[in-house]
Amino acid sequence: MNSNPSPSNSSRFEGCTLTGALSVTTEVRDAVSVIHGPAGCTHHNFSLLHATHLANDRLEVPRLLSTRLTENGIIFGGEDALEETVAQALSLSPAAVFVLSTCIVETIGDDVAAICAKSRGVPVIPVPTAGFLGGVFETGVMNALSSVASLAGPADEKTLSANLIGEKNLEYGVEENAAEIVRLLSRLGIAVNLRFVRGIETQDIRRLGSAAVNILREPALRPVGEDLERRLGTPYVDSFPAGLSGTCRFLEEVGRICGIDATAAVEEEQSHQAEMLSRFDDIAGSRVCFRSPHPMLRGDPGAEAICTECAEALNLIVDPDGAAIPLPYPAPVGTAGLRRMLHRWRVLIREKRRG
């Protein structure tokens, strides 16, 4: 929770810390996530995750259990309820159990870490997710990534591969974005080792340390990148690629880290971008005006730079009276993301012409 909720003080990642963490832990498919707190916390997040899965054609039910704390547990402590719920989770034969705390649990002082530390034959891992101490959605994601990474260890040797770290699992288009990264990496002869964390099993986490490079979804995850580099010795690129030139820089940076000359890959991608842009010759020279997608969102210099670069490539004229083009949120990933963005621009420009 942010102590000052004014728009000028709001992060783009504002939201429930617990929800952010669950968007990570529930992607370990053979694990169970235990929410230590009132039933409402679990009900809300189960509904959100289930609806998001259905919207992305994933017929899966999140494996969540709740300690269902009531007034009695809040007054006298909820550790017994947590012990019982962990036992219930273990009866489902999971490969791992993640225990996520809530605001009320941190308030009453239950020792979640001590309960998780007991030997049970299956890893029971605490994930700190009490947002009332200042955490937001982003905090939950980072805490969960670090907690899940505790199941990994240094690899005997590195392979010419990459890990995708911290994909936005609640984002519409997450699979398209991952496919674009796979396409770009293939230009360098690099495969994806692990999507950390999306659609994996507990045993897959052991491979985390074997990649040559970690690719973070966005710069906000740099603390996670630094943590993984410290633990496993894996360097990182701090963001998925965005923009025409940004996509080429991404190839260069990955190539540098992996000891690969990216010159040919960059030239191939630039040719691909030129061919993509040629499909939008019909809107060349149009007048456009870039605007924030929502009044509550602050201006994103990165998004503005991406749009300006594309406008210049298509000889578009930025004019206050031009077609209203919302700045992308979040930024489109790679050349494929720009193509989808330009399709939306075309629709808005045509509507303006007809109007």
Question: Would you give an account of this structure?
Answer:
The chain is an alpha/beta fold and 355 residues long. It folds into three domains: 7-151, Rossmann fold, CATH 3.40.50.1980; 159-276, Rossmann fold (3-Layer(aba) Sandwich); 279-354, no CATH class. It is built from 13 helices and eleven strands. The chain has helices at residues 17-25, 39-55, 71-76, 79-90, 103-108, 112-116, 137-148, 174-187, 222-232, 244-258, 263-278, 301-313, 334-354, and strands spanning 31-36, 64-66, 96-101, 124-127, 159-165, 191-196, 211-216, 236-237, 287-291, 317-318, 323-326. The strands form three sheets. Strands 2-1-3-4 form a four-stranded parallel sheet, with helices on both faces. The relative contact order is 0.11. Mean pLDDT is 91; it is low at 1-13. It holds the Pfam family Oxidored_nitro. Its EC number is 1.18.6.1. InterPro entries: Nase/OxRdtase_comp1 (IPR000510), Nase_comp1_CS (IPR000318), NifE-like (IPR049939). It comes from Methanoculleus chikugoensis.
